[in-house]
Amino acid sequence: MRWSKYYLPTYKEVPKDAEIPSHQLMLRAGMIRMLTSGVYSFLPMGYRVLRRVETIVREEMDRTGAQEVQMPVLHPAELYEETGRLKNFGEILFQLKDRRARLFALGPTHEEVVTDIARAEIKSYRQLPQTLYQIQTKFRDEFRPRFGVMRAREFMMKDAYSFHASDESLHDTYAAMAGAYRRILERLGLEGVQVQAESGAIGGDINEEFIVLADAGESVMFRCASCGYAANDERAVSLGPAMLEKELSAKMENVATPGQHTVDEVSAFFKVSKQRLVKTLLYKSKWRDIAVLVPGDRELNEVKLAKALDDPDVRPMTPEEVEALTGAPVGFAGPVGLKAIIIADELMNAYDGMIVGANAADAHLRGVKMGRDFKPERTAPLSTVVAGDRCASCGKGELQLQRGVEIGHIFKLDVKYSKAMRATFLDQEGQEQPFIMGCYGFGVSRAVAAAIEQHYDERGIRWPKALTPFHAVVTPLNLNDESTVGAMERVYAELKAAGFDVLLDDRDLRPGPKFKDAELIGVPMRVTLGERNLKDGNCEIFYRLDDRTDVVPLADAVASVRRYYEA
Ligand code: ATP
Ligand code: MG
């Protein structure tokens, strides 16, 4: 490819509306352009990288025996009514009407569509298992599209779905998919972790995410250095802090705390750590008022609460509802004497006493004991884990917090969709059974951004070998010198003939800007042709990842590139 003719608009300035490095670099390196919020075009450079990811993902899917299909993007809304997801997806689902006012959705994922295919064709256990996958555009009207293609409203996903007659068969495919995901990350040159996760709108209890480590990532996970436990923040549990501060007061006392509302204010007022305080958070569940107790130094995890109550619609009380229930302004709720069902965080079991709101303005209770002064209906893991907590899996290690980008998510769906959609087969005994299913998503376009988050420096992108849009840039320093032009055409032709993707920087520019651009777009090797070296029959090879330059005979240029990519 000749740069002078290539559609590769680069720019020096860091775009103001791009917050994270990958988004900035994808714009600056001419990879993507925004059409509207969360909707992007991939320009030639970006599309090359996207296709490299696709190829690796496709090869690894095929290797597991999954079969590639292409399902529609336009979905009749009735399918989503069958599974209840027309409501559950809420505003995420893009909806539109056809000329007869029939409602459609743009596919955010394809459980319904693939289950509809299977229920029409697969009749017997003899036709199972089956795994279908596709690489396709997905649509989600994200609440907060941001970070470029990292969280877009239109994006590329690889989604696979498996159908089974038994749990063991599902387990085998699930394990094969997890293996394929690990290989994909390794081949892409990405450092990732496999963590236990929550299933969100997809459903199913056993599910794991693949997280690519990156400081700018939106996913938070906790890992135990001693036993290898790893879970995302929605799922992670712990044994709490290594040390728990003792409560000094043995009996319950009412203390006036004028003007002290926040955890910080109240803990400073009592001169105790925030951990001693217990927050009372009030929620409305289907039929009941719920008071949730969590340690003052932690947040309530609403996903865990919804799970503990088995109520996805549980919601915080409004200030008016809080005042009506407690008889006090917001900020002074407490469990003692409260007319609500109390659910306490599991960590509360280790508390010998606590400080809580007194359900009266400007007052708190100290020396409160759970069991003696109030009785919870039960305890459950409800609070967020904090870095440094003891690991619940091995009981010894410390949990460490890491950030990353969710790149893949695999689920054992069990019979969630097949039951709802009456998708059944006849088992060996001739009994009708719902399919046992799994689903496996991978963010293809997000992977491009995630790769950059792991591979960049102040000068630009540093592509891993498997992803680079070009294997080498050939950079002539002086296009007015005949020997340079001759050498450049020869090296360019030889590299192409050897099967490499080459960018020839034939632009009429000074060397400085050419070098800068080549480093910005992140090509791992640059073959530089200058009069001085050419006089001795040599060229210069610059290795972007090692920041190293070699002078080699011009005749060895192709061999050097081959050596680099074969290593
Ligand atoms: P997130 O928690 O980031 O919103 P999700 O859990 O909703 O993602 P899944 O339904 O598990 O996503 O989709 C499978 C994969 O598709 C994700 O692991 C991610 O890599 C990718 N993906 C999901 N949403 C987006 C998006 N808005 N933009 C780009 N890629 C996405
Ligand atoms: Mg997910």
Mean pLDDT metric: 94
- Structural class by secondary-structure content: alpha+beta
Helix share bin? 25-40%
How many helical stretches? 15
Give the ligands present.
adenosine-5'-triphosphate, magnesium ion
Rg (CA only): 29 Å
- Uncertain segments are none
Q: Any idea what the shape is? A: globular
Count of distinct strands: 31
Cα(first) to Cα(last) distance is 25 Å
Proportion of strand residues: 25-35%
**Tell me about the biggest sheet?**
9 strands, mixed
Could you provide a short overview of the structure?
The protein is 27% helix and 28% strand. The chain has 567 residues and is of the alpha+beta class.
Q: What this model shows, in words?
A:
This protein has 567 residues and is an alpha+beta fold. The chain has 15 helices and 31 strands. Strands 3, 7, 8, 9, 10, 11, 12, 21 and 24 form a nine-stranded mixed β-sheet that branches. Strands 16-14-15-17-20 form a five-stranded mixed β-sheet, with no helix packed on it. β30 (538-543) and β31 form a beta hairpin. α2 runs antiparallel to α6 and α2 (44-64) crosses α11 (444-454). The radius of gyration is 29 Å and the shape is globular. The two termini are 25 Å apart. The model has no long low-confidence stretch (mean pLDDT 94). Magnesium ion binds at residues 200, 209, 406, 409. Adenosine-5'-triphosphate binds next to β8, β21, β24 and α11.
Key traits:
single chain; 567 residues; alpha+beta; 9-stranded mixed sheet; 5-stranded mixed sheet; 15 helices; 27% helix; 28% strand; globular; binds adenosine-5'-triphosphate; binds magnesium ion
